[in-house]
Amino acid sequence: MIKNLLKIRHSELKILLLAILLSIFSVMPVNGQGAISPTLSISPGLVRQTVKPGERTVVKVKVSNLGTDPIPLSASKFSISGINNLGAPEFTAEARPHSGVEWLELDKPDLIVDALGSQEVQVTIEVPKETNPGGYSAALIFQARLPADYFDLDANTRIVPALSTSFLLSVDSGTPPTIDSLSISSFKAPRIVVSAPVPLLAEISNPTGFFFFVDGKLTVTPTWGEQRIVTQFASSVLMPESSRQYVSAYIGKIWPGVYDAKITLKQNDKVLVASTRFISVPWPFIIIASSLTILMVGWIVRRRRARTPQIALRQP
Predict the structure, then answer these.
(1) Residue 78's beta-bridge partner residues?
(2) 17 or 110: whose pLDDT is higher?
(3) Most buried one in 89, 94, 222, 241, CB count within 10 A?
(4) CB-side neighbour CA atoms (13 Å) of 217
(5) d(C-alpha 281, C-alpha 24), whole Å
């Protein structure tokens, strides 16, 4: 669920957008009376399209209502400001670099989706002739317009359903950049860990004006054991001229020793790699080692005390 609050243009009303790629959105009734639970879905949730300057491309988006009440919807266009740590897009009504918002035109910006029915919206993408090669993004957010009688009159909070389709548009280039243009700005893990999970944080920078769709994985290998996969990335999106953080955690059992963590990103036959290392000193090991140390110190002290009278007797 996206936690960001979006400011709608020309309005001071803040709406909570439950817009996650390829997700189903629902509204939970409040207090159980006078409320409905509309359930909406959208397909596709993500459009990856190669476009050419001066040409038009048509994409069809299908909105379905799985609930038992008709839902009126109104579509708005937003820029994509970035991708958060959970991999979900973040939307803004403000103008952004590499935005293709003005390229999108809908044949039905306002529609009513019948109960257990669906509506198809035709989106025309027209790229200006002077557009430079690169990656451009935009999003359509379909916001439910529900009358007051859809909600419990005594409810203090009303959650309004919304869903989105993100457009990642690549203006064709004869020589697109390769993964060599990317850099792993940082890859961090705690130096010493005492228990799982072990947090791992990687930051990837994309200085180019193009999208990157990369595959890869994050692995952890103990000194004496086999490699263990922590996370796998499939067609992970890197936005143009931006950085993205990948947050993960190793949740397996840890034993005393040294662990090597490595992140690997692939694009075709090219690979980008970074690694880090952490030392594991688990709590049980600390407790056992401390107990043995205390017992050893106690034994040494007792031995010395037991020998002291004997030494005294030997003295003239």
Answers:
(1) 139
(2) 110
(3) 89
(4) 8
(5) 43
When divided into structural domains, the chain yields a total of 2
Residue 265: give its domain's CATH number: 2.60.40.10
Tens of pLDDT along 122-166?
A: 999 999 999 999 999 999 999 888 666 555 555 555 566 678 899
Token readout for 77 is 């266009």
Look at residue 315 and tell me if it is in a domain. no
DSSP 8-class letter at 99: B
Spatial separation of the C-alpha atoms in residues 220 and 101, rounded to whole Å: 41
**Three-state SS annotation for 75-88:** EEEEEEEEECCCCC
Residue 249 buriedness (CB in 10 A; 0-12 / 13-18 / 19+): middle
pLDDT per residue as tens digits for the range 269-281: 889 999 999 998 8
- Residue range(s) defining the domain that contains residue 190: 179-280
What pLDDT, in 10s, does the model give residues 76-100?
999 998 888 777 888 988 888 899 9
